[in-house]
Amino acid sequence: MVIFIYMCILALNLVAIFLTYHFLGKEMEKKAKGIFIIVGIAVIYMLVSLVYWIGTKDIDLGNNESFGKNLITFTFVPVNAIVILPFLASSYKNLQTGKLKSEPFRNRCILLAIVLIILLIIEFFYFKDIQTGIYNMLQNARSNS
After folding, report:
1. b/e map of 67-101 (b: 16 or more CB within 10 Å)?
2. How many angstroms separate the most distant Cα atoms in the chain?
3. Do residues 91 and 108 touch, judged by C-beta distance below 8 A?
């Protein structure tokens, strides 16, 4: 079961990376695309980790805490990246090629930031329930073994 979950997380990460890479276009250098993708995913990872920490700081899961944290974080980072990064990449590409002026680009960034904040708020309220569910799943698996 755990291997299946990790394979799904890997697939989500690959989709996030390839979508963002595709939306950056053919005009941009591969190095610049790589930096954009790495920085974008790193920022989303830090935000999801912060929201996870705030949302689950009252839960004590003992030894299972790191497994649950990794599972939740590595699941929600690519989901958030799929929602935000391709659209940001497309706008950035259009800004670089001169098809988009700086003010509309700024407005798109603000809109994407609002969408990301809404996603993080929703995730904040569900992280505690998800963490408790993972704990119960692990306890059931151990008792059945």
Report:
1. ebbebbbbbbbbbbbbebbbbbbbbbbbbeeeebe
2. 61
3. yes
